[in-house]
Each structure stands twice: as structure tokens, then as C-alpha cells.
Write a structure and sequence with these properties.
The chain is mostly helical. The protein folds into two domains: about 70-110, no CATH class; about 125-345, MetI-like fold (Orthogonal Bundle). The protein contains 13 helices and no strands. It has helices at about 5, 15-65, 70-75, 80-90, 100-110, 125-160, 165-180, 180-195, 210-245, 245-255, 260-295, 300-310, 315-345. The model has no long low-confidence stretch (mean pLDDT about 80).
């Protein structure tokens, strides 16, 4: 037997199991590489969020600690002696170098410990948790109202573009965008509370009476939701108009589909891509706006807790609330970005 024939003998050829093993290894390696490429954008976004949170924490801490005044002076009052103020400052740990105070604060936050209020001596975590039972439903109700207003109005404005009704819808959204949430709240109080006596003026009875609690949240929710609905309607209108002018929708209509059918089959998914971003950003702005509106309606949410803490120089509570709001906004932006990639497959695997 020649050398060439010996190389081709069955004893030198790989077995079927070996071939399948090599193919399986290559398939596994390819799958792992694809999974790594898919996770890379998420890891980059998470790293960016961590860096942003660090920057926000430094900014919040520095700004609050350079303000004049001392929590010890507020607690003890104007008649306190300098020695008493000095002793309480040391007891609160505020005589340490700022870098040590920052590291202590961040270390506690990372472990989920919000600390104890300088003024009330209560757990800040429990105070924030109690406040969120008001702020959380308020933001969700306002978002629901905004969607119920913005989506139909935006769709109607796009479908009736160029007509009188479409122009009226556009004018209404412009007026809604121009009115601040605080002004809208005051107008609602005057009309629905002072004049018609339908809803309570202010306060919150607690969730032990769900019906009264919901009634107390109606006006604040509409104050935020009407303005957000006007903003969303503009984006919905622009997104739908862009889809109506696209070539693929014209092709669908040329095949006999009506406008509504073409939008349902081909347009709404593409129109939803920018709208998800808008809803996420508006949800973040609702969190901030709720803090302001709560003070108008005297709701015991994060807004009232933040205002009281600022007035009393309860710095640790202010810092915790500011970081909670910053974290919420950044997490919402991350979720919006991920949703955007799910809706648009072209963005998968991109940085």
C-alpha cells in the first residue's frame, strides 16, 4: 500500500462522533460569541449609568454641603450655645472631613441603609417608603391620563392633517404644553373644588380608605397628566405623519388597504419606536413634576418630604431623595434604550 493510500485509510479518518463533536464545539462557540455581542451594549449602558450615578452623588453632596447653615443650629434653635452646637455636630458626624462624610454616606446607600433623619430621628428609608405610597400612584395615574389623552389626539391630528379639525387639535396641544402643571393644578382647584365642590382641595386620607385616597389623587393626576398628554400628542402626531408619508405605507395603500388597515398592519410598530423614547422621558419628568405638584395639593409624598427636609437642613434626607430621583431617571432611560432595541432589530448588537 502506498503512502497516499495509507493516509486515506479508515483508521486515519475522523469518526462520525468526532465530526459531530467538532461541529457542536463550533456551534457553541458561535452562540457564545453572539451572546457576548448582544450583552456588550447592555454592559456599556450599565457602566455609563454607574458613572452617571457617581457624578450625581458627588454633585448632590458638594452642593448641599457648601450651603450656609448647620443642621445642629436648626435642631438646637437660635438660643443654643456654641459648645452645644459643636457637641451635636460631632454627634451627627458632621465634624469629619467631607471626603469621609461622603464615603460613609455612599457606603450606607450601597448597603441599602438610608440612614436616620437629623430632625425626626426616624429611619429615612421608612419615611421615603411611606412617601412613595403617594408619589408612586400619582405618577402612574398621571402617565395613564397622559396616554389616554395623547395617543387618541395625536392619531386624530395626524389622520386629519390639513383639515380644520386637525388644526384645532394642534392648537389645543400647544395650549396644553404652554400651561405649567402647577398652574393647571390651581385652575382645577378653582373650578372643581372651590366652584363645584367635587373634589377635596388638599391633603391625603391614606389608603385605609381607598375611595377617598383615589379622590384626593384625581386633581394632582390630571394636573400632571393633561400637560403630559399635550406633549405626547405632538410626538404621536409627528410619528404617525412620518409613517403615512413613507414609501412602504404608500405601497400598502396602493394594494387596496385603507389608511387604518395599513397603519395597523405596517405603521404602528415603526411609529412606536420613537414614542417609547418619549414615554420613557416623560415618565422621568413626571417623577420630578410630581414633587412640585404635591406641594400645591399638600400631599405627603416625596415632594413634601423634600421641602420639609430642605427647610430644616436635614441634609442626609435631601441627599437620599435626590439620589433616589436620579437613580429612577437613569434606570428609566436604560429601560427605554433596551425597549428601543427590542422594537428595532437593526439596533441589536450595536453599542
Amino acid at each position: 500500500m502506498s503512502a497516499d493510500e495509507s493516509q486515506l485509510s479508515p483508521h486515519h479518518l475522523p469518526s462520525g462522533g468526532a465530526v459531530r463533536g467538532q461541529r457542536g464545539s463550533r456551534t457553541l462557540g458561535t452562540s457564545l460569541r453572539r451572546a457576548g455581542l448582544a450583552l456588550l451594549p447592555l454592559l456599556r449602558r450599565l457602566a455609563t449609568m454607574v458613572v452617571a450615578l457617581f457624578g450625581a452623588s458627588v454633585l448632590v453632596f458638594v452642593v448641599l454641603n457648601v450651603l450656609p447653615g448647620s443642621p445642629a443650629e436648626v435642631i438646637l434653635g437660635t438660643q443654643a450655645t456654641p459648645r452645644a452646637v459643636q457637641q451635636l455636630t460631632a454627634q451627627l458626624g458632621l465634624n469629619k472631613p467631607l471626603i469621609n462624610q461622603y464615603l460613609d454616606w455612599m457606603g450606607n446607600l450601597v448597603r441599602g441603609n438610608f440612614g436616620v433623619s437629623y430632625i425626626s430621628h426616624q429611619s429615612i428609608g421608612s419615611q421615603i417608603g411611606q412617601a412613595l405610597t403617594v408619589t408612586g400612584p400619582l405618577v402612574l395615574f398621571a402617565l395613564l391620563i397622559g396616554l389616554l389623552i395623547g395617543l387618541p389626539l395625536g392619531l386624530a391630528g395626524a389622520l386629519r392633517n390639513g383639515r380644520v379639525s386637525g388644526s384645532l387639535i394642534g392648537a389645543m396641544s400647544q395650549v396644553g404644553m404652554a400651561v405649567p402643571s402647577v398652574v393647571a393644578g390651581l385652575l382645577l382647584i378653582v373650578v372643581l373644588t372651590v366652584k363645584l365642590h367635587i373634589f377635596p382641595t388638599s391633603g391625603f386620607p391614606g389608603w385605609s380608605d381607598p375611595w377617598q385616597a383615589l379622590r384626593a389623587l384625581v386633581l394632582p393626576s390630571f394636573s400632571l397628566g393633561v400637560v403630559e398628554g399635550a406633549i405626547m400628542s405632538r410626538y404621536v402626531r409627528a410619528s404617525i405623519l412620518e409613517q403615512l408619508r413613507s414609501d412602504y405605507l404608500r405601497t400598502a395603500r396602493s394594494k387596496g388597504l385603507r389608511v387604518g388597515q395599513a397603519l395597523r398592519r405596517h405603521g404602528f410598530r415603526n411609529a412606536a419606536i420613537p414614542l417609547v423614547t418619549v414615554v420613557g422621558l416623560e415618565l422621568a419628568s413626571l417623577v420630578v413634576g410630581a414633587i412640585v405638584v404635591e406641594n400645591v395639593f399638600s400631599l405627603p409624598g416625596l415632594g413634601l418630604l423634600l421641602l420639609d427636609s430642605v427647610n430644616n437642613r436635614d441634609l442626609i434626607t435631601v441627599q437620599d431623595i435626590a439620589m433616589l430621583v436620579a437613580t429612577t431617571v437613569l434606570v428609566l432611560n436604560l429601560l427605554v434604550d433596551l425597549s428601543y432595541r427590542l422594537l428595532d432589530p437593526r439596533l441589536k448588537g450595536t453599542a
